[in-house]
């Protein structure tokens, strides 16, 4: 598939998606069709975290997932949030019958919150491990079985972090047009480091971005991936790409295969914490070498052997205190055929010029500058074909030029003040006006300024400002094919490339649409999965400060199709306006509003906001048909109470009405008595004791609450499903080492029927048909060490628990806090999938006995869901971290 970015036209589109190749296999058989207005419940059926007032704690919600094999599901994933308690989330997949009971397969997802979510990197080795083949009612045993599915490393789709010096323009494929290469640093799949290449097709069109991983060695994770250079190191007239990796002290060279694509990288060990790279011929052999500026202020040359392999020379500048060195420049200053070096010394307010004497020997001269230089570049500014120097003082407001005197020495600095705003941090030299003289492009306080060379090293400052916030690197090239040199700026805040197109009068025009390298989401993004454009594929709706739609192009490839400024969290999917298309409903505790985004039919949305009371935390948030009118209403928590926004029938909503007091850890919305109105069953605190409570729906958005059962121990979670096969939904509540079964008498009255020993404290419960007998079984996930399976024997009886070790997933001692069921190996049996610091699964052999498992290491997840995204009938994975949204496509052997 070819993705195209067209510059210079009113409609600018860019698709940047590098799909995860991962692993482990399959598609949940428990999936959901996009909800319609006639459905009883859409979105989250439960929540577990009780927010602390004054915090922005994020709790869990999940979606109903009735069994379906024909259509993509609408799946609301599992959330993880900051906190200190271990809570759980359960969701009941509810295909409603005439009586309103829950009859279809359901799943629930565990959620344990043990602290602030982090994004520490980990290796993506896809290591396999095994879990117990046979569960036991006594001790936990492990019987090793051969793994037939595995997880392998993949790439993140969205959320690139762009480091300094991240963009270069060069003709990578030899067609005469400059292509674009971007250095993308750590993202979401542990530790992703790579290069994104966009081939120039001519006429302002760019091909599908190609992503090359491996720009960080296996021995370390690079946070300081500052520098990227392009140069022809092997003499084939096709430039290679080289990257400096800070944390693992390596230089990485990607060989150009001749067509603008790149092969497997080669790693070279450089100086301590290499910061910057530059290219030059340091030994006079007419072959380009690499120079590396390290954090220790030393310059090390990697000498090219003529075939793009390198041998490191001795460090230069050792013993010279240049203070903090952010930048260096390389050029043959004295005309002897060997490249020399200039290094900034911010502390000393000097430039250190190192004349190359050959044999790793340098003669060092210090040149004072007018301010503290942070950036230096070499360029031909005086019109005499000698390399000069330009410097910018990042803490000041000026740019200076030092002209080469012809013998490698430099004249006094001539400065130009840029005025407010200050802090020039980025410099680039290019002939912008095609007069044969190199001009200067300055990245200043997140904006772009231009200085035009008037000849003789004299410059004229253009009074215009260009660009936007978050500027961190620049490149110049003819983007739109009109023969004029344009500016490409990377934006770390929006995680995008911003084209500035040069106009006929020499001014630059910022395009209204950026070239996204990510979604620009801040904090922890949320998402939901549904077929948003009615093409039969599962798409992804991502929410945060804004809402973004990722449309599935087939085979798990996604396109960023639209964005909406109405953001929020806990996206719920359902047809709120009755037009047959899935809409989005979001909750915003920041603005105290519910955002309703109506689907326009092409996957884009138009929205409206409805205020909700102060104190709304969006922990309990769902769409449900509460009043039996076939229209989906909104239910949301607000300051220990429940608020209902009633749907008027056309997708607009009446003002919020407070319905019932509530202080729940877990909850489910279900019609217990068959009156057509959904009731609210909760696990919550009642007079400081944990209880199962029922809030009966009396219509008009009002509930009457009663306590049903108060055990001696703490309750953590519940699931609601028809255990007795009588058409009435029953309740199973998880406590300390036990599961309580509450039977529905048919009139919506719940009575304690049985208390089963589980042998572990379940932090979450879920239901799924694990043994293929058509009855829903119970899975209990503990916050420590193990999970348990209670098979449904029929007529209201659950079998004794079979326990399986959690540490068999290779994820450490605690069980991962998020879990679901999905057909991981495509055999028709639901397996158990976990998410936390890793993706993991235990394979069901078809009789609810779980064998081998595999893991895929990731940074800590925020949300997690399993869904077939590429149409191969195997569950793929979507998860979010602080660094973005990630898609993992499954494969099986």
From TrEMBL:
<protein>
    <submittedName>
        <fullName>Repeat domain-containing protein</fullName>
    </submittedName>
</protein>
<feature type="signal peptide">
    <location>
        <begin position="1"/>
        <end position="23"/>
    </location>
</feature>
<feature type="compositionally biased region" description="Low complexity">
    <location>
        <begin position="59"/>
        <end position="134"/>
    </location>
</feature>
<keyword id="KW-0732">Signal</keyword>
<dbReference type="InterPro" id="IPR028994">
    <property type="entry name" value="Integrin_alpha_N"/>
</dbReference>
<dbReference type="Pfam" id="PF13517">
    <property type="entry name" value="FG-GAP_3"/>
</dbReference>
<feature type="compositionally biased region" description="Low complexity">
    <location>
        <begin position="31"/>
        <end position="46"/>
    </location>
</feature>
<dbReference type="InterPro" id="IPR013517">
    <property type="entry name" value="FG-GAP"/>
</dbReference>
<feature type="region of interest" description="Disordered">
    <location>
        <begin position="31"/>
        <end position="136"/>
    </location>
</feature>
């Amino acid at each position: 598939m070819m993705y195209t970015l067209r510059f210079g036209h009113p409609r600018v589109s860019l698709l940047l998606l590098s799909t995860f190749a991962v692993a482990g296999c399959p598609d949940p058989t428990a999936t959901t069709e996009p909800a319609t207005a006639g459905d009883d419940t859409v979105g989250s059926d439960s929540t577990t975290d009780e927010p602390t007032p004054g915090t922005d704690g994020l709790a869990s919600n999940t979606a109903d997932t009735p069994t379906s094999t024909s259509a993509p599901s609408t799946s609301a994933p599992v959330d993880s949030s900051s906190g200190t308690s271990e809570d759980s989330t359960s969701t009941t997949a509810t295909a409603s019958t005439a009586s309103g009971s829950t009859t279809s397969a359901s799943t629930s997802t565990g959620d344990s919150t043990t602290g602030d979510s982090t994004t520490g990197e980990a290796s993506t080795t896809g290591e396999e491990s095994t879990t117990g083949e046979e569960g036991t009612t006594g001790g936990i045993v492990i019987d090793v079985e051969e793994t037939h599915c595995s997880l392998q490393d993949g790439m993140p789709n969205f959320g690139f972090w762009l480091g300094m010096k991240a963009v270069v323009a060069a003709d990578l494929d030899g067609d005469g047009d400059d292509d674009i290469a971007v250095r993308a640093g750590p993202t979401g799949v542990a530790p992703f480091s790579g290069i994104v290449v966009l081939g120039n097709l001519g006429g302002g069109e760019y091909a599908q971005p190609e992503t090359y991983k491996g720009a960080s060695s296996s021995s370390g994770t690079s946070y300081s991936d500052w520098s990227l250079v392009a140069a022809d190191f092997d003499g084939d007239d096709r430039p290679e790409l080289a990257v400096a990796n800070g944390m693992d002290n390596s230089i990485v060279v990607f060989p150009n295969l001749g067509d603008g694509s790149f092969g497997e990288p080669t790693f070279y060990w450089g100086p301590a914490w290499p910061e910057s790279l530059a290219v030059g011929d340091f030994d006079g052999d007419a072959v380009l070498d690499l120079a590396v500026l390290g954090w220790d202020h030393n310059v090390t040359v990697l000498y090219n052997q003529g075939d793009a392999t390198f041998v490191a020379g001795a460090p230069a500048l050792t013993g010279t205190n240049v203070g903090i060195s952010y930048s260096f420049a390389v050029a043959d200053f004295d005309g002897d055929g060997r490249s020399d070096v200039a290094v900034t010394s911010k502390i000393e307010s000097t430039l250190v010029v190192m004349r190359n004497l050959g044999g790793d020997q340098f003669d060092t001269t210090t040149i004072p500058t007018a301010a503290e230089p942070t950036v230096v570049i070499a360029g031909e500014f005086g019109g005499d074909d000698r390399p000069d120097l330009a410097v910018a003082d990042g803490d000041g407001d000026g740019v200076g030029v030092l002209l080469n005197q012809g013998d490698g020495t430099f004249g006094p600095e001539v400065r130009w003040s840029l005025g407010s705003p200050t802090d020039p941090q980025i410099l680039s030299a290019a002939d912008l006006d095609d007069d044969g003289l190199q001009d200067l492009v300055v990245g200043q306080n997140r904006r772009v300024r231009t200085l035009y060379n008037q000849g003789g090293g004299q410059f004229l400052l253009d009074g215009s400002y260009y660009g936007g916030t978050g500027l961190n690197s620049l490149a110049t090239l003819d983007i739109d094919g009109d023969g004029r040199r344009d500016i490409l700026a990377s934006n770390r805040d929006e995680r995008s490339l911003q084209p500035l197109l040069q106009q006929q009068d020499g001014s630059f025009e910022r395009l209204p649409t950026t070239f996204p390298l990510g979604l620009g989401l801040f904090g922890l993004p949320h998402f939901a999965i549904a077929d948003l454009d009615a093409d039969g594929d599962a798409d992804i709706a991502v929410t945060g400060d804004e809402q973004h739609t990722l449309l599935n192009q087939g085979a798990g490839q996604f396109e960023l199709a639209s964005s909406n400024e109405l953001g929020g969290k806990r996206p719920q999917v359902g047809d709120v306006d009755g037009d047959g298309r899935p809409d989005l409903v979001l909750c915003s505790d920041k603005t105290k509003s519910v955002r309703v985004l109506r689907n326009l039919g092409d996957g884009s949305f138009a929205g409206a906001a409805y205020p909700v009371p102060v104190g709304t935390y969006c922990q309990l948030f769902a769409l449900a048909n509460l009043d039996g009118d076939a229209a989906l209403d909104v239910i949301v928590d607000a300051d220990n109470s429940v608020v209902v926004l009633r749907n008027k029938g056309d997708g607009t909503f009446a003002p919020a009405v407070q319905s019932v007091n509530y202080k729940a850890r877990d909850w489910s919305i279900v019609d217990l008595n068959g009156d057509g109105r959904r009731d609210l069953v909760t696990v919550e605190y009642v007079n400081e004791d944990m209880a199962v409570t029922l809030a009966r729906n009396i219509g008009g958005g009002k509930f009457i609450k009663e306590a049903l059962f108060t055990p001696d121990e703490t309750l953590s979670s519940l699931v609601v499903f028809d255990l007795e096969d009588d058409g009435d939904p029953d309740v199973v509540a998880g406590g300390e080492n036990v599961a309580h079964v509450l039977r529905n008498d048919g009139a919506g009255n719940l009575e304690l029927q049985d208390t089963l020993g589980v042998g572990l404290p379940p932090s979450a419960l879920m239901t799924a048909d694990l043994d293929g007998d058509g009855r829903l079984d119970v899975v209990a996930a503990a916050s420590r060490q193990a999970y348990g399976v209670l098979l449904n024997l029929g007529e209201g009886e659950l079998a004794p628990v079979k326990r399986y070790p959690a540490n068999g997933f290779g994820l450490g001692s605690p069980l991962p806090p998020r879990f679901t069921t999905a057909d991981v190996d495509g055999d028709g049996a639901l397996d158990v999938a976990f998410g936390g610091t890793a993706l993991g699964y235990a394979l069901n052999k078809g009789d609810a006995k779980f064998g081998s498992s595999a893991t895929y290491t990731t940074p800590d997840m925020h949300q997690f869901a399993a869904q077939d995204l590429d149409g191969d009938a195997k569950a793929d994975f979507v998860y979010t971290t602080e660094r973005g949204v990630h898609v993992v496509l499954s494969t099986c052997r």
